[in-house]
Amino acid sequence: MTDRILVLNPRSGDGKRSARARAMAEDRGYDVRESGEKGDTLELAREAAREGSSIIAAAGGDGTLNEVVRGVDSEGRLDGTTLGVVPCGTGNDFADNVGVRGVEHAFDVLAEGRRRRLDLGSVRWTAAASADSLSEAPERPFLNSCVCGLTAEASARTTREAKRRLGVLAYVLSTLQRTRTFEGLRLDVRAGPRSDPVWTGEALMLLVGNGRRFPGERMRQANVEDGLLNVVVVRNRPALNYLTEGAADRLLRRGASHLTRLKVSHLEVDAGAPRQFSLDGELVERRHLRVDARPGAMRFAVGEAYDPSPADPNGDI
Hints:
The chain is α+β, with helices and mostly antiparallel strands. It has 2 domains: about 5-110, Probable inorganic polyphosphate/atp-NAD kinase, domain 1 (Rossmann fold), CATH 3.40.50; about 120-295, Tumour Suppressor Smad4, CATH 2.60.200.40.
């Protein structure tokens, strides 16, 4: 029995990279534990954490990685475990952010890469909106983003076959198809230690990033060590043609009057009614959310291209 575990989702992406990851892991002496159905990945990560494994890596997409981190976190083992990612999914955003460029490179990083303390995002929800009830509710971590509104609801309608055939373009196409029917959402957003109101009104979407780069920010890699959440509120119905090339970049272009951008450690959201929130691609339907940054919560194996403090040529916000 090895204390290096690879939790593998064989259904990620087109399946070919998952098969390659399994072969490489076995050649390198990893104990490969393959999920069979929904929920298996989380339990396999919990088991590996309970066993005291020194390295637990996720082979799959962002959703697989999210479940592995959740499993290790639920056992209180983030401090004592090195986490890693072997990108086998459709988008692999977090792997790209930490400088992991492919399956073979991922194993090189696990063997020889730097270990960095990276932030996690954390979401809590409850039926009531009081600060006390939200702070006491169970938390759900996310690595890339928590998204509500147009993109979250469009992702719910993106088929597995479309994701496999078109990759990240599938989400873009689903979003464009939804723009004419999306009715918007009423948001009340509060931030900071005093939960001061920062935005109220009809929104097209709310984007909360930990590791994700949003279009218009012009950053190759997000800052995953600043202890802050990157928040973008997009006002409903800006005058844009969503069917033209580069529509997403224009929608989120820096300085646009329909955008509110914030960097905060804490956020409370009232969506007015239960709405779809996407946590690293997993959808939950809630009205009240509290979102926090957890600075340096996990120890992660990163590639040589990873920059601990990436500079944004347009400033911090």
